[in-house]
# Entry
Amino acid sequence: MPITLRELIAEPELKLRLVAGTEADSLDRELTWVHSSDLIDPTPWLEPGQLLLTDGSQFGGDASVTDYVRRLRDAEIVGLGYAVGVITPELPQALVDACRDQQLPLVVVANRLPFIRIIRHVADAIAADRSARVTRSIRAQRAIARAALQPNGLAATLRELEVQLDCWVVLYDRLGRRVRLQTKRAAPAELLDELSKSVAATLRGAKRASRKIETADGEITLQTIGRTGDLLGALVIGTAVTLDAESNDLIASVLGIASIAIEQSRVLDAARHELRRGVLALLQASATDAALAALRALEAWVPEGAVVVSAVRGVRNWESTLGELEVLAEGAEFAFARVGDELIVFETAGRDPRPSAEALEGRELMIGVSAPVDLEDFSEGLRQARQAVERARPGAPVEFGALAELGMLAWLEAADGAVAARRLFAPLHDRADAAELLHSAEVWFAHNCAWDPAARELGMHRHTLRARIDQLGVICQLDLEDFGARAELYTALQLRE
# Structure
């Protein structure tokens, strides 16, 4: 730590004496430099934290000592040193009174002590402190580098950071959840809820950020990990004192190591995604034993009993979604794989909410869920999930079992009934009156095929309406006097896109 004014006054070789400002806070502030000047207003050449030395030659004439001291106080200097025996044999009483009123430390420089002796003493102390800081920083950086080379490098690095900064550390993942790591110190339990909220809010911003939070016990530093738009998590550090530049440099090194470690993990995740896709193919091919063996090799969840299969569409940010699923899958009873633009998830049947829901909720995805199936019938579960997702809307999952409640049309739509509807209406494609003919048929069906009320709604004679319906039947090659043909036309109208 650099020298303070109190420590400078206590140096026996200098024989300095404090005569005013004995209770001033600036006595324990770090001295940034020592400056000498006999100007009546030296403040343009002063900076906060400096000690000013003078022999008092500027106080002759009409110069106001009170204004002089006030200017020094406003410049936030640490104190004023006055050399007695040069211009005046004693301290001017007006200067003593002004410094006492302004609580500016006033120091007597006696015995014609050269100002350069004081300046050199402070300069040597600042240089020694700077050298000690650099030495400590190099040692700390080396210790962090050695920790990073250990088998569990990230955890070891964070433990070493705790040692070097005498702090506690908490790591959060990209979802804003605490990562359980064995560190040396635990964060204060009463702060965890508030910290989690702060981290979650910061990560939602998706931008690199650094925050300082003052507490009764010191200072908390929150730093995001990763780059803007692709945050990997956050590191929270609690210290009893404000961190200096060297400590912040050490934290920056740890953030770099954490980023590398997490990025390496993401590369491994990408390889695991490919393996999961292979597991899915094995399940679809009914090679259940081989699929289970692959899941065990991945150290992933191995299903026992019935599962439900989900087909998920509409994923916009695959990297983020797969990353969150990767984090959630540790210790949870579900597995997943990306197949083209579709995400397939299977998990233990009967769980509510489903374990995968946390990563999928709030994303406005279309999700179809199968009925419970045995693992040997995985392909059937996947077929059901894909039928259900055809009826899903963003943010509103559809379960296969609920399709029956939606009626026969829902089943037909899920089974690509719209394809048959397009084929039926294909002859109408180039006709200018196509929309008019189809609308007439919709109104006719809405009135249970009764001619008069349908014609009144359309504003035409019932014979005109009958002629239109007959014309539509001829074009679509349907005998609309037959109930089956009418049912086919009605169904096609409901399924057309």
Remarks:
- The first strand starts at residue 17 and ends at 20.
